[in-house]
Write a structure and sequence with these properties.
Blueprint (H helix, E strand, L loop, with lengths): L1 H23 L45 H13 L1 H22 L4 E17 L2 E20 L4 H67 L5 H36 L33 H22 L4 E12 L12 E9 L7 H67 L5 H36 L4 H8 L1
Antiparallel strand pairs: 1-2, 2-3, 3-4
Helix pairs in contact: 2-4, 3-4, 4-5, 4-6, 4-8, 6-7, 7-8
Length: 480
């Protein structure tokens, strides 16, 4: 009776402690959600009104094929298999998957088995005589530990790891999309650099012809020494620019080869011209296309994971209920370990509640909340950047097309002007500076036209990146 009187106050204090901890943690049971202040999502893109709607050519689902360049599609496939940065992204998925398994393992019972054997010499004294003997002793055991996830703490931990795995998978898709875009950019940049090189070569050849004409006019007494020196100066400048363009083309080729995972030898077979036609962009693209962007999926997953981590940190301050079951046997003979008479077992249940840890748990909770708020702001900024990229690409498409058409007319007029200037110079009607200026204008117009053609392709790549893929499915849906 006295023994029961002594133990009852201790039990009451433990129950009271558990009750107070539970009541103080009621506010911690609600899942944490970081403050949401996301930008408004438009129903459709504002800049889409600048795009002329057309139903011509639906195109393939793979956006790279919209450039009608089989060699480019082959290079992208090669890069996906060989690029080392993409392999690193794939390794990060494997690491995140392993982390998810580790985090979820705490929800399952932890089972451990043990088996030990010992051999020892024992001595005893019987009737004044020392009796020694060598004996064996075998022992086996099995222990099971399990934590009851009463508050959902372990569930938050497992869910956060799963969401981080989803983010890693989205990062891989983003890296793959970015790699395809960089290969496309490098491919078109290399083609333009090669065309620019041919233009520089043609220009240098034209300046050589002009120099010969200036010399002939000087010998015939129709020109001056100044004409010859001006022609020589322009030829020397053209040869200098030609050498610089060779360096530029070499850099573009080596950069492209490094992305492909090849040795950067600077040797790649390129087509003679850039693709001239692009599939038209349909009007009224829905803003929901944005949600397939891998970087948005990754940012959203990390935001949700950060919320789960914040909820887990809050519930780390609540009591934990753990159950432990153990059993085993010991015997001098190995074959007697399974004898039911020798088996022993025990089951223990316990409650632990943190009382004082120097502010560690509260600081961890504040840290997790700050990380969740940071993830929220990063997600909002990613959404805004995505809106900007789509609107910019859509707005640039028709303007670049208009610029290209104007430059084509400029090239035609500059070519006619150069021919007239050459004829009039040979006839002695104009001086050489008129001819040189006409050649310069023709070169600049042709060079700028090449740049704009490449820029249109680069802008289309930007649009596909901004939308997270192709828009062929939108065209097909409208056609139906």
């Amino acid at each position: 009776m006295n023994r029961e009187a002594r133990t009852t106050p201790g039990v009451n204090r433990l129950a009271l402690l558990f009750l107070l901890a539970s009541l103080s943690g009621c506010s911690l049971l609600q899942p944490y959600r970081s403050p949401q202040n996301l930008p408004a999502t438009p129903s459709e893109w504002k800049a889409a009104s600048l795009v002329q709607h057309s139903r011509e050519s639906g195109g393939d689902a793979v956006w790279q094929e919209s450039f009608t360049d089989p060699a480019l599609a082959s290079l992208i496939s090669e890069a996906v298999g060989n690029n080392f940065d993409l392999r690193s992204a794939a390794s990060r998925i494997a690491a995140a998957r392993a982390s998810a398994i580790i985090s979820g393992a705490d929800q399952a019972p932890q089972i451990a088995a043990s088996l030990s054997a010992s051999r020892a010499k024992r001595s005893t004294v019987v009737g004044g005589n020392v009796i020694s003997g060598i004996g064996n002793y075998f022992q086996s055991g099995l222990e099971i530990r399990w934590e009851a996830d009463l508050w959902g703490r372990l569930g938050h931990q497992a869910q956060a790891a799963t969401l981080e795995l989803v983010a890693s998978e989205a990062d891989y898709r983003a890296a793959r999309l970015s790699l395809a875009a960089n290969i496309s950019r490098g491919w078109f940049n290399s083609i333009e650099a090669q065309q620019q090189l041919k233009l520089f070569q043609q220009t240098a050849a034209n300046y050589r012809k002009l120099l010969e004409s200036a010399r002939e006019s000087y010998r015939a007494g129709l020109g001056s020494a100044l004409d010859v020196r001006l022609a020589r100066s322009n030829l020397a400048s053209a040869e200098s620019q030609l050498a610089a363009q060779r360096i530029h083309l070499d850099n573009e080729l080596r950069t492209l080869q490094a992305l492909l995972g090849r040795y950067p030898s600077g040797q790649i077979n390129l087509p003679d011209k850039l693709p001239l036609r692009l599939r038209p962009v349909p009007a009224g693209l829905p803003s929901e296309l944005l949600m397939r962007r891998p970087d948005l999926i990754a940012a959203e997953s990390r935001l949700l994971a950060a919320d789960e981590r914040a909820s887990q940190a809050a519930k780390n301050r609540l009591p934990r209920i753990q159950l432990t079951a153990s059993g085993g046997a010991g015997s001098d003979e190995l074959n007697s370990l399974l004898d039911s008479e020798r088996l022993i077992w025990s089951i223990v249940g316990g409650i632990t509640a943190p009382l004082f840890q120097g502010g560690r748990l509260k600081a961890n909770q504040q840290l997790a909340r700050a990380n969740a708020d940071q993830a929220m702001n990063q997600y909002a900024q990613t959404v805004l950047n995505a809106f900007r990229e789509v609107e910019t690409a859509l707005a640039a498409a028709p303007l670049l097309e208009t610029q290209q058409q104007a430059l084509q007319k400029a090239v035609e007029e500059a070519r006619e002007s150069e021919q007239l200037a050459a004829e009039q110079y040979r006839a002695g009607l104009v001086d050489i500076t008129t001819w040189l200026e006409a050649q310069r204008r023709l070169f600049n117009a042709r060079s700028t036209l090449l740049q704009i053609r490449n820029q249109r392709l680069q802008s289309r790549i930007d649009l596909h990146l901004a939308l997270g893929g192709d828009f062929a499915d939108v065209v097909s849906a409208e056609a139906e």
